[in-house]
Design brief:
single chain
Length: 58
Amino acid sequence: MVMALFLLFLLVAVVLGIIGVAAEGLGFLLAIGIVVFAAAVISFTVLVSRRARRRPVR
């Protein structure tokens, strides 16, 4: 579930970035794509680090 959500956010970020670069006057979409990408990476790392702490050491 977490990985699917992460990949969805990455896909949205890439699409927004491509549209922002390709279309004239839509540079703000590139900025939004970068923000979505950063949010996806940060949220994924936080979720993965939380899961790693819950496992007992054996």
